[in-house]
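Re: [help] complex structure
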Amino acid sequence: GAGVSQSPRYKVAKRGQDVALRCDPISGHVSLFWYQQALGQGPEFLTYFQNEAQLDKSGLPSDRFFAERPEGSVSTLKIQRTQQEDSAVYLCASNGGFDEQFFGPGTRLTVL
Amino acid sequence: GENVEQHPSTLSVQEGDSAVIKCTYSDSASNYFPWYKQELGKGPQLIIDIRSNVGEKKDQRIAVTLNKTAKHFSLHITETQPEDSAVYFCAASRWRNTGKLIFGQGTTLQVKP
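Output below.
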């Protein structure tokens, strides 16, 4: 079956631009997670949804980062006024009620 | 805060040898410990996991051990093959709480033919 998909796969933004990253989880998966992975590092937790409810946003680095999942399926991570330190791979994962989180391929964001 | 330390950062072995990667976690409430393999340009893929009520788990050439008292867990790969070359991440979480994964820094494994 289809796994987690993310789009775009690559995004180049000029400093100060807003970007929106999309995640399509596995159908029926209740839980959705966003992680940020800097080059050569492990993924770091950003935020967590259960259905449409954002239950944990403790990992969002600043108020420029905003995530939503209005209908409990597709999620969008938005970054306003991008800065160079936002350059990273943004990973989305979904979970269907058991332990395993299934990861998408990620969106590589480069801020120039 | 919650932290997972992973060693070594790089590991090079000859094909057929064993590889061992070790992780230590700080949150004593952690109860789920997955290992992920990440290939270039791809997202992490789960290869094996262990829960806190189990000390060891094996799946073909891969095994994981957990020592809750010492708060460390290890990945063992036997009979390594070139296709095992990748970056490996350990992680810890409080499953049934938030479920968020705290990852180690990663180990780049190179298996030389």
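Chain A has no helices and eleven strands.
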